[in-house]
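Researcher: Here's a chain I'd like modeled. Treat it as a single chain, no partners, no ligands.
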Amino acid sequence: MALDGKFIDLLVKGLSVVAGHNKNIGKVIDLLGNSLDKLQTTSVDSGNVGKAAKAARVLKDDVAEVKSVLQAAGPKKASKIPLAAKATLIKLRLKTITDPAKRVALKKQLKAVKKVLALKRALKNADPEQKAAIKAKLAKAKAVLKKANKRVALVAPKKSIAKKIALIKAKLAKAKNPARRAALKAQLKAAKKVRALKKALRNADPAEKKAIRAKLVKAQKKLARAAVKAFKAPKAISIKIALIKKALKNAATPKRIAALKK
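Model: Modeled as a single isolated chain. Structure tokens:
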């Protein structure tokens, strides 16, 4: 009877762990299966051990089946950003980067992306006898791009969308210039749109994912353009605005205040 209790406790504990670790669900199921193997080999303590071992074997088979289903129907990683869109995003990012090392890494990445794009177009339009040579060049160009991507990830890693939103909010709280505030608000709106689409992509059905990915790429471009505008917006309040604010404080009549506000 004690073994039956251990068996139930093991099952409940295993399922609770699975529920709390979706990312490692395959590993957790493996661990559960291994635990059930151990349960099968437990020494005979009572007349109900045979039933427990039989249940363990059945459950092990069920676990294997569940694992295969999860692997087949589990969420796939989002597809990479199309190279043409990636080139646009790198160009826009370069407009907001001032660090020399980061700029060098991004320029090399952009050059590698352009090379791969050019070779892909050449391969598409090439004669059959030229394709082998172009494919060899393309393989080398992809290797260079992979290396450039790793360098950028090391030198100029991208912030998560949550961190970007938090950073924009912090800048917005400090911003005084109306033009800068407007640019930051537009950037914040674009960032929230990207966050919403990323969440929608994670929870979408396979049939909907292609359309959502297309929307996400557009939203990412819009966010990158908004970031450039916010980066270029003047941080300090202009002298004219400062003088008007000072005059408003000293204005004595409603007519004068109305004139200054215009």
